[in-house]
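The protein record quoted in full:

***
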Amino acid sequence: MKAIGYQQALRIQEEASLCDIELPIPEPSGHDVLVEVKAVAVNPVDTKIRANVAPDQGSWKVLGWDAAGIVTSVGEKVSAFKPGDAVWYAGDLSRQGSNAQYQLVDERIVGRKPSSLDFASAAALPLTAITAWEMLFDRLNIKPGREHAGEKLLVIGAAGGVGSILVQLASQLTSLTVIATASRAESQAWLEQLGAHHVINHKASLSKQLQELEVGEVDHVVSLNHTEEHLDEIVAALKPQGQFGLIDDPEALNVRALKSKSLSLHWEFMFTRSMYKTTDMVAQQKLLNEVAALVDQGILKSTLGVNAGKINATNLRKAHEKLEAESMIGKVVLEGFK
């Protein structure tokens, strides 16, 4: 089968950073489904692993943690899927990724693809939908419906993949007032279209802008990038006993700054369940099926920003460069092999 992989952790400008290769088609067993990959999305995790994690000597590492495709065969313990089913998923960090024509995935972290979306539009959502859903409903323990009326959520760096679905989930499913941040006019317009009640600029003082909007302090903050740079403003923006969630990897974080306001800290990492084989792994299957239903009902929409063409090394290198430039609106997706 065709695949894109690498043998050395390199800068994306190096041709060997991602290569077109041939690998054998894997065989499913146990809870695995074998998926014929139709479309993939690229995430910051792809770029971080490519730049920092080398495979064993002589081996190829295949990236990719967002895909939509068709089940072609299943392991003996599979009960949720059969050949021919259209599925979507974000995969498992400890296994080969979706930048290949065929991929093995544990059925417990696979969901049915929304029937209203094509494969490219569907591939844009799984990783970010899981991350946003787990952050909002599991880590921050926000409840759908009217329970949080009057409470305010600030989402920092909201125009990327996770922010684009988090804003939708919060504005469509909860009673939170959603304040999103973006620094460019086009990304601010994107967030308004997705349902943000206010959009402010994270390159200026967040707390001052909130005061100018007469929003005041907020109950919850989710920081999606450059958290270390924003920490002082996050603390200033939060109410006493507020909640602070993040997904990025700051080199250092002064947690003592949270003490005087008794702020709680919540980290979300969507690979935790698959990485540790938690007893509730199947929660991600249920989550993805629920998101698919919301998409098919027209409540949520795809966050596809750019379709970068066929799935090959050249196009994937360009996609990695886009993400590393940190100027994406929504998600970059590739579709089909050539």
About this structure: The first strand starts at residue 2 and ends at 6. The longest helix spans residues 126-139. The chain has a mean pLDDT of 96. DSSP finds ten helices and 16 strands in the chain.
